[in-house]
Design a protein that fits this description.
Layout (H helix, E strand, L loop, with lengths): L4 H20 L6 H8 L3 H7 L3 H21 L5 H18 L1 H10 L5 H25 L4 H21 L3 H4 L4
Helix pairs in contact: 1-2, 1-4, 1-6, 2-3, 4-5, 4-6, 4-7, 5-6, 6-8, 7-8
Length: 172
């Protein structure tokens, strides 16, 4: 099924927003920056997203939804589940590096709507991971999920700051 040009344009704006937010952050990005990156006028952005905040939340929601889908696509037994979920996330991070940055930026924004979106996204990932780990029979499931998520967030921060020694212990 082919998307309509309106759907394509909204997608282009969303992708431009992802790129600009990842590069400039939430507070330093304007809809004019996003419009320029998308090659459109600023008022045209507002045809699809009423505010910069709405666009950011749509991009953040996409990032969390992709993570959930990547985890749902993992087929593994108890012994391999965590490793395969990590591998799925690493692959996703390579394919969509702007979304990694967006997650880090998203947890630093103080506006309630953005905080709520970040909370909702992280909570849905936690809930899914908890259920998946329980179904796999992983012991100490609460602790294992907390560690799994904490390592993922640490990986995001390491990537965002270009500080790999946070993860591998070795300086560049």
């Amino acid at each position: 099924m082919v998307r309509s040009s309106k759907e394509n344009r909204k997608e282009e704006i969303l992708e431009a927003g992802l790129e600009v937010f990842a590069k400039r952050g939430y507070y330093n990005t304007t809809t004019a920056h996003i419009a320029e990156r998308a090659g459109i006028s600023q008022p045209y952005v507002f045809r699809f997203f009423k505010t910069k905040e709405e666009l950011f939340i749509a991009a953040l929601d996409r990032a969390y939804e992709r993570i959930l889908q990547a985890f749902k696509n993992v087929d593994a037994d108890q012994e391999q589940l965590v490793a395969k979920m990590i591998a799925a996330y690493e692959e996703l991070s390579e394919l969509y590096p702007n979304e990694v940055a967006l997650q880090v930026i998203g947890i630093s924004v103080t506006e309630n709507a953005v905080r709520n979106a970040a909370q909702k996204g992280l909570s849905s990932i936690r809930s899914y991971t908890l259920e998946r780990f329980k179904e796999a029979g992983i012991k100490n499931v609460e602790s294992e999920v907390t560690t799994f998520l904490a390592r993922g967030i640490l990986c995001n921060i390491s990537y965002f700051l270009d500080l790999p020694e946070l993860i591998d212990g070795e300086k560049k």
